[in-house]
Amino acid sequence: MSNIKIGLFGFGVVGQGVYEVIRKSKNAHAEVVKICVSNLQKPRRTEVDASLLTDRAEDILLNPEIDLIVEVINNADDAYQIVKTALERGIPVVSGSKAMLAKHLPELIELQKKHNVALLYDASSCGSIPVIRNLEEYYDNDLLLEVKGILNGSSNYILSRVFDHKEPYESALRKAQELGFAETDPSFDIEGYDSLFKLVIITVHALGTYVAPERIFTYGISTIHDSDIQYAREKGVKIKLVAQVVKVSDEHFTMFVMPEFVSPNKYIYSVDDEYNGVVIRGECYDRQFMFGKGAGSLPTASSILSDIMARRHDYRYEYKKQHFEQKPDYTTDILLKIYVRYSQTNIQHVLHFEQIHEQYISSESNYVIGDIRLSELIAKRDQLTAKDLFIANIPIFFLNKDN
């Protein structure tokens, strides 16, 4: 059996992990024959023959010997150009670029059809957890009700240090940066965008519908305060950054990314440190839970390797749910129950609550718990960026099924 010849774009943490796992795997029957990098002189942890390196994309894209392209670069715009060009040339691609995929997936799906070529990207969502392929194949029906979970390891590590080790938020963030779980600029993770992009991709395979990222309410953990942590502890819950897509009726579904108060009877309550956890709920099988490392060099590389080996067997996503006759439509006209902590901001002037359940006012901080439309949060999201605000979701979906 001849080896698959791979052109690799990107040789950072994940790219080097891909190179290493391919070399270690006895059954991959694959070899990296060219690696495209932005800086040929950059020192790297993994030793590699200098003849494999290039800084010219065309050395891979125009190489007739290359059977498969693996793309794991950080720049979403460059990743899009690489993947688009490869598909147009009929070269199959394995990608881990969640931001690029979330923004361009409808076009990339059409390119796959037009040029009869495959694009695989299990590594883009939850690292080592094979959530995409499971949703595509095992949950290939209209009985799916919800996909919900912790999709970002960096923010989860920070919150785990806060709740399990009683560390201050800023200290936990610094430790995450020192360990490489969070970037020097951690906003992509802690503001929820990483989880958002993964949720967009997951929803395509869960329900067959694409929703552009800018249409989805996303709120992170950067403004969490000691008073929020204390409130959660008093209630016997943890705060987790949670992404979810949920069918609210046969005709409609909704989706959002928000901090959430998670009680001990929930699977994701015990998902700690840099791990991810995904709960899949259906009409006939209740809840199923997937757990694993959601990021990092080797966990992500293992998912890339799985896609590489799947291509050896001509596997491709079929996107069958996109052809269902009655797909649910995306809606933001739903009622949520939320906690809002504030100090200077006149939150009830900013937000229209349909009902207020609880309100607390003190000299240091205040909070309100009430029912609000998701559409109201989206309409007012530019006014919800103040440093004195923190918002968390209080779950209301499927509560009667979790006892």
Q: Would you write up a description of this structure?
A:
By secondary structure, the protein is of the alpha/beta class. The protein contains 13 helices and 17 strands. The chain folds into 2 domains: 4-120, 3-Layer(aba) Sandwich (Rossmann fold), CATH 3.40.50; 132-298 and 326-401, Dihydrodipicolinate Reductase, domain 2, CATH 3.30.360.10. It has helices at residues 13-24, 58-61, 76-88, 98-115, 131-137, 153-165, 169-178, 187-190, 193-207, 226-235, 297-312, 347-350, 374-379; strands at residues 4-9, 30-36, 53-54, 68-71, 93-95, 119-120, 144-150, 217-218, 238-247, 252-262, 275-282, 286-293, 329-330, 335-342, 355-360, 366-373, 390-394. Strands 7, 8, 9, 10, 11, 12 and 13 form a 7-stranded mixed beta sheet that branches. Strands 3-2-1-4-5-6 form a 6-stranded parallel beta sheet, with helices on both faces. Strand 11 (275-282) and strand 12 (286-293) form a beta hairpin. 45% of the residues are buried.
Q: Biggest sheet, in brief?
A: 7 strands, mixed
Distance between the termini: 53 Å
- Coarse shape: globular
CATH class label of the largest domain: Alpha Beta
The pLDDT mean sits at 94
CATH topology of the largest domain: Dihydrodipicolinate Reductase, domain 2
Which regions have little confidence, pLDDT < 50, spanning 5+ residues? none
Which architecture name of the largest domain does CATH use? 2-Layer Sandwich
Fraction of residues in H or I helices: 25-40%
Question: What is the H-and-E element order?
Answer: EHEEHEHEHEHEHHHHEHEEEEHEEHEEHE
